[in-house]
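Continuing the batch. This is chain 6 of the set; chains 1 through 5 are on the previous pages. Same settings as before, nothing changed between runs. Recording input and output for traceability.
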Amino acid sequence: MKLLPWLATLSSPDRTSAAADSTVPFPPPSSSSSSSSSDRSNSSETASTSTPESRGTRSTIESSLSLRTLPSVPSLEIMHGLPLSPESLHLSAVSHRSLTSIRPRGTQPITCLASHGHLLYVASAHMVDVYDAATLAHLDSFNASAPSSGSVKSIGFCHGRIFTGHQDSKIRVWRVAGGGSKQYRQVAALPTFSDRLRRFVLPKNYVTVRRHRKHLWIDHADAVTGLAVNDGLVYSISWDRTLKVWRESDLRCLESVRTHDDAVNAVAVAGDGTVYTGSADRRIRVWAKRSGERQHGLIATLEKHKSTVNALALSSDGSILFSGSCDRSILVWEECSVNHMTVTGALRGHGKAILCLIYISNLLLSGSEDQTIRIWRQCPDGRFSCLATLEGHRKPVKTLAAFQAGDGGLDIFSGSLDGEIKVWHVSISTPII
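Output for chain 6:
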């Protein structure tokens, strides 16, 4: 996302707002929409009062809401039987096959898959298993001694460290042990003891959470549901409705921002540092640091989904945002002018809630509660083609990871709530750019 031209218009007095439209202008900064560590000295923060069970139901099933469609948003996908433009005739031929499947923890749900180099990281229950993505050889497992940490919900990587977000509201930091060992050892838990020590004395560093309890503002008060990494910073989101920013070099918490009115389920960060958060409140919010400021501020609120936002993904250059929701749609957001974002259309085809999205090699992969994976590609005329639908799971597809294959295709790993990981190979006739 090109942020500077947008920010240059924020102080313009003749800027107007549009309501209930697919084009969403950027609002002026609002101190009530976000609160950082420096802003909260004399204020309190109230976290979500919903239970983990109710949040899980909201973010995955929402059986009644997931039946809603978005009639006001035009479909972007190419429909069979409709006339194609010359630009759309140059479509890729795709073949795919299921290679194998693995069950790391029996029937324990797969909660997160993450790719890093040639390694696949698999989170199931409180454990993380590490595999060689090419051979599927099991290399190591870690966090075995901490079942009380709850399920691992997210995994991130930064400068040789592995960050894992947990149900118990902690972020744990891991590193491969030295001396030629391939084993992983925990080196820290966030917030660190030293970070707590330097803040616990001052009353202004405490915020009020549910049940009238107080926490240091550097603490998450509920499950850590997502992690994203960019330029030496780690961004974490939580069911406590906050976004926190951590510096990888010293593991200190730099900011805590109250982002939404309900649980935060998804986060994505562009290369220029623009942060996107998606929530059970049906909104996507855009955050960035304005020129000369040290804290993230609210740049835009994107409202088109009719239900919980479960997943976000960015195109390679950060100019297109994809959002997946319980309303069964994937919305495509693009810049339409220097100070506007617009929904250019919706990708439809899944029969139930969208649970995960990843973007790799100009392809968008989506996993759904309908137990399928779809592969999407944008055509030169701007419309999208569903290249393939991968079927075979017996429960919802919760998470996806992918690796570039030697033949120019992709090796796709899909994790399901039945504890199974399926491995797929997808070949595309035209080269992936």
